[in-house]
Structure formats: structure tokens, C-alpha cells
Amino acid sequence: MTSARVRPEVVEAARTLLDQMGITAEDLLQAPGSPSQVPTFAEYVPVVLAAVGDGARRTYGNYLHKVVDRWGERRLDEVTPTEIETLMRQLQGEAVQRRNSRGGSSTGEHVIAALRCVYRRAVADRLIADADDPARKVAKPRRPTSQRIALPDERLSELVVAAAGGRDPELDALIVRFHIETACRRGGLLGLRPMDLDVQQCLVMLREKGGTFRWQPVSPTLMTFLLHHVDQRSAAPDQRLVRYRDGRPIGARRYDGLFKRIACDLPWVASQGVSAHWLRHTTLTWVERVYGYGVALAYAGHAESPNDTGTTARYVKATLQEVATALAGLTGEPHPLALSEQEE
């Protein structure tokens, strides 16, 4: 019932205004809570970390813990864009300086991305209004141009030989060959399971960042190595495939140790900061030069990416058979899915 103190024409004017603004009565009842209802960083960051995927948790967790250390008792709506930018600069200055460091730009980018993740979820949970999100008002640092390049053939050969010189040459050679053939990211190999092998068609299922997955051709020789590895190191069908001799699955630290050891033998690996991702650059560059952009796009697992050259990528999407043909050219081995010369 309309209150006697409010004239009907005022109520009608208010309804008209709300209709024009696209606001309903339900929206008003469900508006973001009062300041007393807005959680602190110490209360809300664990909620966010529990909700995000494993990859985001690994990427953002360290930075969000630092945010809690500094702002744990502050509410989400108390922090300003200026304070966020100041924190970003402070953490950039505290970043560990390695040979391949680029002025802390990666740290700054991850700090902003982590806080945007927190505030996006806070807006979705109706704890703050979208317009009050301070993290969106702070620009990420400009990402420097990547210094990774495709390795020349002689350098790649040196790296392959050096990789097999450790205490577990079978494991290290498998890691390097897998990355050369598939051009996958580290997560693609670390997440591989025996059940992800299609032995008959020489395909492996790769799961990489962003929850993407795809079938990727491998050579018959690499498939044989993978099956031998499963047999010798007793990986269960639904567990991680690549393992140490004692049966433990490898993690990201294995890559750090592998390339640190290689760098002791090859000074250019140390001076340039070469990592497994350089193998991805090397293979994809070769595929693009020999088989074209569309095949390289699919080989990299970027065929569905919205960031690739806009509309053009829709018309140059390569087939799995074309990717297998490029792999056959790379390894010099026939592949069951490769196109014949008449089909190319």
C-alpha cells in the first residue's frame, strides 16, 4: 500500500525513472551490502582461492598472500586504485632479479590480475558494485617483447645431446623430445596420463592453460618411448604418466633442474635463459615457415583463440591431418594421419 505521505504522482514519477534506468524493485532489494557486510581481504581471499582453478591458484596465490599480509584487516571497499598501483610498484621492486628478469613487469602484471580476480568475484557475489571495483581502474604494466627465439639446428642438437647427460637420461630425453614434437607448454606434459594415449593413431591428449585440451600427433618412435616409460615406471591409467625411477610423478621443478644442468654444459643456455618454452618457439617457427600460418596456429593449440588475428583465423584453420603432416616432415617419420602427397 502506498504511504499517505507520498503523493501518487511522485510514486509514478519514481517508477518511470526506474524503468528508464532499467532498474527493478528486485535490484534495489538485492543491491550490494552495507560497508559492515563487505569482508576483509583476510576473510575473502581464501574464498577466492578455493573457487578458482589449480592454474589460477598457483599463479595468483603467492601475490594474494602478500596482499593479505599488508591489507588483511581492511575491507575490500576501503582500498583505492592509487593504493593498488602503489602496492604493485612495491612488489615489483621486491621481485627476485634473475638473469632473464624484465624489470618486474611479470610481477606487476600478476598482482593486478590477482586483484582483478578477487574483485570480479566480489562483484559477482554482490559484495560491492561493479563501478566500485578499484582493480579495473589500474592498468597492467606493458608487457615487454619476448626475448625467446627459435633455436638454430646446431644449437638444438647441442641441447638434445646435453639433456641426455644426467643421472636419468631416459626421463630427460623424453621430456625434451616431447616438447620438440608437440610444441606444448609444460602443463601439457605434466598433465599427461596413460589413458590420454591413442596408440593406434599416434595421438596424445594435451591439457593446457585455460582449461583447453586437444589431440596432438606424435611420432611412432615417441609413442613407443611413452609406452615403455609407462611400463617401466608403473603409471596407473588415470595418473600422471611421466615419472622418476622411484615412481613419483615429476613436477615443474624437474624442468628447473634439467635446464640448470644443461646450462652448466652449454654457456649460451645460461646467458640467454633458455627454457622448455624455447622449444615451443623453435618448432612452431619451423612449422610456420614450411607449412604456413594456419598449420602453425593449429599445431600450437591456438586455432580457437580469440586473440589470433581476428576473423582471418577462422578461414585458415588447419585439420588434424595437416598437423600430422607437419609432424611427419619435422621428424622424418611417417604418421598414420599424415596426408599423402596427392592430398597435400
TrEMBL record:
<dbReference type="InterPro" id="IPR013762">
    <property type="entry name" value="Integrase-like_cat_sf"/>
</dbReference>
<protein>
    <submittedName>
        <fullName>Integrase</fullName>
    </submittedName>
</protein>
<dbReference type="InterPro" id="IPR050090">
    <property type="entry name" value="Tyrosine_recombinase_XerCD"/>
</dbReference>
<dbReference type="InterPro" id="IPR002104">
    <property type="entry name" value="Integrase_catalytic"/>
</dbReference>
<keyword id="KW-0233">DNA recombination</keyword>
<dbReference type="GO" id="GO:0003677">
    <property type="term" value="F:DNA binding"/>
</dbReference>
<keyword id="KW-0238">DNA-binding</keyword>
<dbReference type="InterPro" id="IPR010998">
    <property type="entry name" value="Integrase_recombinase_N"/>
</dbReference>
<dbReference type="GO" id="GO:0006310">
    <property type="term" value="P:DNA recombination"/>
</dbReference>
<dbReference type="InterPro" id="IPR011010">
    <property type="entry name" value="DNA_brk_join_enz"/>
</dbReference>
<dbReference type="GO" id="GO:0015074">
    <property type="term" value="P:DNA integration"/>
</dbReference>
<feature type="domain" description="Tyr recombinase">
    <location>
        <begin position="146"/>
        <end position="328"/>
    </location>
</feature>
<dbReference type="Pfam" id="PF00589">
    <property type="entry name" value="Phage_integrase"/>
</dbReference>
<comment type="similarity">
    <text>Belongs to the 'phage' integrase family.</text>
</comment>
